[in-house]
């Protein structure tokens, strides 16, 4: 990339374009421009694309899978949620532990005591017609592109109070997943 040099005629043209008097010398303007350019380069250099941080080997499930299978995948892989995909690998939703617990009658704002009481056999009314992932998944899923900055991911995760975002290409096909844990691990390495 070629270094940008500011010439006097550039400054004169910019000042003329303002159509107003500016009480600043060309030399002061050059200094301000160089400092601003340095800050812009630093800001751009600090951008960390999602593709550098995401997990590429993603555990997924289809919408017609049973909830027992979904719970097994979550448990076996020690994850709390996974993308739901169609036959062409398009992301159509997300299924989480909270979704499955909700199916079991435990509210999404459940407490540890609620879960423990359910495990110990306290009857909790089950939702009817909750047999497949499609019955409990969150859809549509909030997704992100691989070129997005991880700061954008952090903002979305915080605002939406979620833990992960599927990473999709231009055709909404799954290419990875980025979670809070991915961001923390990446930052720890820095």
From TrEMBL:
* Ribonucleoprotein keyword on record: no
Q: Which InterPro entries match?
A: CBS_dom, CBS_dom_sf, Diverse_CBS-Domain
Q: Which Pfam family, giving just one, matches this sequence?
A: CBS
The record's EC number reads 1.1.1.205
Extract one GO BP annotation from the record. methionine biosynthetic process
Q: Does the keyword Transport apply?
A: no
The CBS domain extends over 54-112, 137-190
Alphabetical list of PROSITE patterns matching this protein? CBS
Which one of the record's GO molecular function terms can you name?
IMP dehydrogenase activity
Keywords attached to this Swiss-Prot or TrEMBL record, sorted alphabetically, are: Amino-acid biosynthesis, CBS domain, Methionine biosynthesis, Oxidoreductase
Family matches, as Gene3D superfamilies: CBS-domain
PANTHER family, sorted? CBS DOMAIN-CONTAINING PROTEIN CBSX3, MITOCHONDRIAL, OS02G0818000 PROTEIN
Instruction: Supply the name of the protein.
Output: Inosine-5'-monophosphate dehydrogenase
């Amino acid at each position: 990339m070629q270094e940008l040099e500011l010439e006097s005629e550039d400054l004169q043209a910019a000042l003329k374009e303002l159509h107003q008097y500016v009480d600043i010398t060309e030399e002061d303007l050059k200094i301000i421009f160089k400092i601003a350019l340095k800050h812009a380069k630093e800001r751009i250099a600090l951008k960390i694309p999602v593709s550098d941080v995401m997990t590429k080997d993603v555990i997924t499930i289809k919408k017609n899978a049973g909830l027992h299978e979904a719970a097994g995948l979550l448990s076996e892989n020690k994850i709390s949620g996974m993308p739901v995909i169609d036959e062409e690998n398009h992301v159509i939703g997300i299924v989480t532990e909270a979704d499955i617990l909700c199916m079991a009658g435990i509210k999404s704002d459940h407490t540890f005591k609620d879960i423990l009481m359910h495990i110990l056999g306290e009857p909790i009314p089950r939702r009817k017609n909750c047999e497949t992932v499609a019955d409990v998944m969150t859809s549509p899923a909030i997704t992100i592109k691989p070129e997005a900055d991880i700061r954008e991911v952090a903002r979305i995760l915080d605002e939406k109070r979620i833990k992960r975002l599927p990473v999709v290409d231009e055709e909404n096909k799954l290419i990875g997943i980025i979670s809070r844990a991915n961001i923390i691990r990446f930052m720890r390495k820095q």
